[in-house]
Write a structure and sequence with these properties.
Layout (H helix, E strand, L loop, with lengths): L2 H29 L9 H6 L2 H18 L6 H25 L4 H20 L6 H8 L10
């Protein structure tokens, strides 16, 4: 097994998804340290952009750690919660401060949170080697009897 395949086998699909979410959350955190955008005006009224960036970066760190451990449900929960909070923030910016197309951003963030919830509910697939440990060697006639 090559190094890349071994790494991906260890990480798994759920871990790969959490890694992707962590990268996205870090990008959002980095984007918040600049000037306040119209769609983040409501967030800036609640906390400083640096505080929001820290929150996003904390969720990213939890996703990166969760990608490698069994208790990944904490990372998935944090990722979902952050996207739901951000969806509400973008919606509030649209309603209170007339952020152009803020409703669309709110829908996208809410849909993304729902998609993460779907992924969180998926079990990690069982590969052939794990299956042999669980039910015996494949092809010996003992499987399914």
């Amino acid at each position: 097994m090559t190094g890349h395949r071994r790494l991906m086998h260890r990480l798994g699909r759920r871990g790969a998804a959490l890694t992707f979410f962590g990268i996205l959350d870090l990008a959002i955190a980095a984007s918040l340290v600049g000037p306040v955008a119209p769609t983040t005006r409501a967030a800036a009224e609640l906390m400083s952009p640096w505080a929001w960036a820290g929150l996003w970066a904390s969720v990213a760190a939890l996703c990166f750690v969760g990608a490698w451990v069994r208790w990944d449900h904490y990372a998935f929960t944090a990722a979902i919660a952050m996207k739901v909070i951000w969806s509400g923030e973008v919606l509030a910016s649209w309603l209170l401060y007339d952020a152009q197309r803020g409703w669309l951003g709110a829908v996208v963030w809410a849909a993304f949170a729902a998609f993460i919830a779907v992924i969180a509910g998926w079990p990690e697939p069982v590969n052939v080697l794990q299956r042999q440990v669980l039910v015996g060697p494949v092809g010996n006639g003992s499987v399914g009897k």
